[in-house]
Design a protein that fits this description.
single chain, alpha+beta, 6 helices, globular
């Protein structure tokens, strides 16, 4: 009988402890709501879909094709460019077209890192050269490892001003507006994030005065295609020695 009473008492004590833990959790939630301000609902919506932010497409998929259109705004001038990337396992290719640096003019640059051929190629227009291949250089080239939007807790989110579900080009996305209060990125960032593909499909960045600095839109995002032909040097491209390539590029820049 004494054992039964002790067991009952222990269970009651455990229930009280659980109740206290639940009360503390509720208190923390209430404190968080007071500290988070008016953007709490936006953050809670993001947390509701946090699994979609925890995936990195460059780790989830072995074959990827993503084409991105970018416009930069500087001193009232626009610079437009596009980056077309193909990934097939350890074989990677990125073609970059547009004006990337002041005074360099329009560029048509392709980087190919071929694990199968153990070669890395730099191609500009119809000419290029081959670099010595190393595993380290290949892994660093066109690396998507930093495309990580994972969220562990609501505290990981910055000053979120707005978040809502909407359609962009017929696809369900989450629209998010974030305020950056410090540093060179001071201003606001707008992002349209694909919940299905776990990737930002559009972004716009503004400075502290509300002037647009940058915008990006994904033109193509697909997985598991046959990209083998795109990961080889085109037959009409002439591969020079590095010395020949640099000399010709210098001569072209001087004309």
């Amino acid at each position: 009988m004494a054992t039964s009473e002790k067991t009952t008492t222990t269970k009651k004590d455990e229930d009280k402890k659980d109740d206290k833990k639940d009360d503390k959790k509720d208190d923390k939630k209430d404190d968080a709501k007071e500290n988070q301000g008016g953007n709490l609902a936006a953050k809670e919506l993001i947390m509701k879909h946090k699994d979609a932010f925890g995936k990195n497409i460059f780790k989830e998929h072995n074959k990827i094709h993503v084409k991105t259109l970018v416009t930069e705004y500087t001193s009232g001038k626009e610079k437009s460019s596009e980056v077309d990337m193909y990934v097939d396992g350890k074989n990677k290719r990125a073609t970059m077209k547009g004006e990337f640096e002041e005074g360099m003019g329009e560029q048509d640059l392709t980087l190919i890192s071929s694990f199968d051929e153990k070669a890395t190629y730099i191609i500009n227009g119809k000419e290029g050269y081959q670099l010595p291949y190393t595993e380290e250089a290949a892994e660093g080239l066109l690396n998507g490892e930093d495309m990580d939007f994972s969220i562990d807790s609501i505290d990981d989110l910055g000053d979120v001003r707005d978040a809502r579900l909407e359609k962009l080009d017929g696809e369900e996305v989450m629209y998010i507006k974030i305020n950056n209060a410090k540093g060179e990125d001071e201003g606001e960032l707008e992002m349209w994030y694909s919940l299905e593909k776990s990737y930002p499909v559009a972004m716009k960045q503004y400075d502290a005065k509300g002037e647009k600095k940058f915008e990006m839109k994904v033109d193509t995002l697909e997985f598991d295609g046959d990209y083998s032909a795109m990961l080889k040097v085109p037959s009409d491209v002439k591969i020079l020695t590095m010395e020949e390539f640099i000399k010709k590029q210098s001569e072209a820049g001087g004309n």
